[in-house]
Every structure is written in structure tokens, then in C-alpha cells.
Amino acid sequence: MEQLALKLRREWGIDNYAPIDIFSLVLEKIGNLTLLWLEMDEDVSGCCTETEDDSVILINSNHSKGRQNFTLAHELYHLKFDDSSDSPICMINSKNPIERKANEFASYFLMPKCALEDYCSRHNIDNWTLREMIRCEQLFQISHKALLIRLQDEKYIDDKEYDYYSTLKLSIRNYAANLGFDTTLYYPSPDSKKHYVLGNLIPLAEELYEKEEISKGLRNEIFLKNFRSDLVYNIEEDNGFD
Predict the structure, then answer these.
(1) Assigned CATH for 2-111
(2) Average pLDDT over residues 221-242
(3) Does the pTM exceed 0.85?
């Protein structure tokens, strides 16, 4: 999974040491992709499906931004490398071997092993403190849990430390704020984007309308049904995911 993640980064021209804005990246690199945010149960992270012409990824908008980033990288594995014909709903604690592969791919794609090693070297980290964890997860835009799992897997922290930092009573959000970081990473989508769509659907509908293949009414209906009333009524949207 690590080599597969590095291979895709190379194909997409991404430095192996650089953090990425994964939502902007996949929309640029996968031209037929539509991203859809929906409110789902807590134990559901998302799912994806594709046809010959289109791909759709669903993201749980009730999850934190960090978790959503991981989910998108997870679903990217299914789209690019999963040969199974199923389009399963991806559960957070699934024991399915394919789901575990997708999780490993997501972790290495967002934060390659060489990038983590370089981060440790540049910051002279011998023992991982909460301060260093916050700084690292902010740089790579991953959730606190995702970072802890990687640190445990790479033997930077032991099981006891993992359990300790997983069950801290203090608020990770408050700690990050006190370090001067934006806390968006730790919050779910704002109310205005609990149901939202980005990607191929929007320019496709616009193109059909401009070619007079669909009416303005149908164009607006498509946008309204896909949670983009701002495109119908020219509403200024907040910058909820940036």
C-alpha cells in the first residue's frame, strides 16, 4: 500500500514530502468526479461508485474535516485500485481486508513514511508529545486518531502511549487553538454544507444549459436537488472547507 500510494503521488506530480489539499487535488486529477457530502451515521465514513463515464464519492459531513480528508483518500483507493465489483458503504471499524488496504493506502498517501521521518528529523523529535502531534496533524491535515494509528504502526509510540493520547480528557480542539492553529480540522462540515456537491456535475449541467440541451428550469432543478441553491440564487457561500 505504501508503494502504491507513492506511485500515485509520482504520477500526479506530488512531492513525497509535501502535504496535500486532497479535495482540490482529486477534483483536478479525476475529471469525471463528483463529490457529495451527506449526513450519515457516525460509524459510516463514506462510499463511492463509478460508471464508464462518471465517478461519485460520498463523504460523511458529520465527521471532522480531518476524518473527511482520510475518507476521500480511502475512497480514492477504491476508485483507482479496487478491482471488486462491489460499491460497499465504508464503515469506520470494518474488518474487511479490502477496507484495511484502503485505510493503509489513505494513510500513506496523505503522509508518506519518508515525510513522517523527515518531519521527525527536522523537528528533532525523540519523544512525541501532544504539542508535536498537533503540529504534525495540522501540517498533513489528518485527524488526531489517524496520526496516532500511524505513530503506533511506525513504532514512534507504544500501545500505552496510544491509549493515553486516545483518551485524553482535555479538548484537542482547545489545545490546537492555544497553539495558534485553526481548529477547522477538528470540526464537521458547517450547517450550510451538511449537504453539498462539488465536481463534474456542476460544469456538466452548465455545459448542457449553454448548448440549449436542457432548459434553465431543469438546470436549476439539478442544482437544487444536489444542494447547490447558491448557484441558483447567486448566494455567497462561506468557506467551510478551506
Answers:
(1) 1.10.10
(2) 68
(3) yes
